[in-house]
Amino acid sequence: MKRHAVLTSTYVNGFDKGSMLTRQSPSGAHTAPLKRIARGVLVALVGALCFPTAAGSTSSKQYISYKEYSLYLLDFNYKQYDCLDKLYTKESNWNPEAIGNLQGTHQVYGIPQGKSEYLATLNGYEQVQWGLKYIGHRYGEPCIAWQHFKDKGWH
């Protein structure tokens, strides 16, 4: 194998074996620690690219949709998610800036179209959290709220 003059004699050129940085050893017994380090670096890079932090960020990029976020909050329960999707599509079409008028008497806000003006100050993710807490408290689960909406026209 070709060695770089810059590297010491204990390292092989770059990604020679199995696309991993390996340490040259007559028996090959010492490659596992470096492979673990390489895997850790790879996991860290993927995590940093896929899940950027929002702390101190002024970017308005959205990395996960409100629908995907609600599915995550529902522990990937697709039956309950389907009901929530139908409900919020009817209510606000998943628009966090939606403002409706409840029977001409009350304004309703955000994705869950709740009466609380507080919802207008929240971002879409917080509105989804608020709406799921409301549904959990009042109905227990989204499918019951969806059935109530189909029966009464409101939830």
Please explain how this structure is put together:
With 155 residues, this protein is mainly alpha-helical. The chain folds into two domains: 1-51, no CATH class; 66-152, no CATH class. Helix content is 43%, strand content 5%. It contains five helices and two strands. The chain has helices spanning 32-50, 66-73, 78-91, 124-138, 142-152, and strands spanning 99-102, 106-109. The protein has a two-stranded antiparallel sheet with strand order 1-2. Helix 2 (66-73) runs parallel beside helix 4 and helix 3 packs parallel to helix 5. The longest helix is centred in the first third of the chain and has 19 residues, at 32-50. The N and C termini lie far apart (70 Å).
Question: Brief description of this entry?
Answer:
The chain is mainly α. 43% of the residues lie in helices and 5% in strands. It has 2 domains: 1-51, no CATH class; 66-152, no CATH class.
